[in-house]
TrEMBL record:
Belongs to the GST superfamily. Alpha family. The keyword Lipoprotein does not apply. It comes from the Eukaryota. It comes from Ptilonorhynchus violaceus. Residues 85-209 form the GST C-terminal domain. Pfam families: GST_C_3, GST_N. GO terms for molecular function: glutathione transferase activity. This is glutathione transferase. InterPro entries: Glutathione-S-Trfase_C-like (IPR010987), Glutathione-S-Trfase_C_sf (IPR036282), Glutathione_S-Trfase (IPR040079), Glutathione_S-Trfase_N (IPR004045), GST_alpha (IPR003080), GST_C (IPR004046), GST_superfamily (IPR050213), Thioredoxin-like_sf (IPR036249).
């Protein structure tokens, strides 16, 4: 073992992408193992690697961690991205949960039937502009600080940045009515670790294409 965290998932975004984002933002290098067949996935289950028979799987600090939320909480705590006290942690948790709800819609979008794609895209746009982004616009405006919680870079900032870029891929002008979020996006993009992650050749995965969707359906077929 190199000592680097080892990530096991498919060669695409899915539930692992937020984990990649958080590790990258913390300046942590990691290794990846890609699942390409159902046999690889079944072997992980048979060998007892997947506690609930689900990936993502992250091997870190001698643990084989599953469940995205648990993995993210551990990484955030380990690398000082989880607030200074319980109140800050509660705020970060609330923001992250909200962003996760929006990201779930984006995650499922590539698997939409062709006749539902337009409707689902409208739903993403509507939720982003009316329910989720206004919350963060208001928070940043009210406290006038660079970051969402405690004027310190945290997990919540990383996840919001990921969500902004993911929505913009589908709805390019989505931030037009959110000046605070536009400034936030620019500041985040220029943070050294995030700037590096946004460069070509980084571990960041491209938007899911048909090949990724096919691989997901093949690996996880019942």
């Amino acid at each position: 073992m190199s000592g680097k965290p080892r990530l096991t998932y498919l060669n695409g975004r899915g539930c692992m992408e937020t984990i990649r984002w958080l590790l990258a933002a913390a300046g942590v290098e990691f290794e990846e193992v890609y699942l390409e067949t159902k046999e690889q996935y079944d072997k992980l289950i048979k060998d007892g690697f997947l506690l609930f028979q689900q990936v993502p799987l992250v091997e870190i600090d001698g643990m084989k961690m599953v469940q995205t939320r648990a993995i993210l909480s551990y990484i955030a705590g380990k690398y000082n991205l989880y607030g200074k006290d319980l109140k800050e942690r509660a705020l970060i948790d609330m923001y992250v949960e909200g962003i996760s709800d929006l990201m779930q819609m984006i995650l499922m979008f590539p698997f939409s039937p062709p006749d539902a794609k337009e409707k689902n895209l409208d739903s993403i746009k509507e939720r982003a502009t009316n329910r989720y982004f206004p919350v963060f616009e208001k928070v940043l405006k009210q406290h006038g600080q660079d970051f969402l919680v405690g004027n310190k870079f945290s997990w919540a900032d990383v996840q919001l940045m990921e969500a902004i870029l993911a929505v913009e891929e589908r709805v390019p002008a989505v931030l037009s009515g959110f000046p605070q979020l536009q400034v936030f996006k620019t500041k985040m993009s220029n943070m050294p670790t995030i700037k590096k992650f946004l460069q070509p050749g980084s571990p960041r995965k491209p938007p899911p294409d048909d090949h990724y969707v096919e691989t997901v359906l093949k690996v996880f077929k019942k």
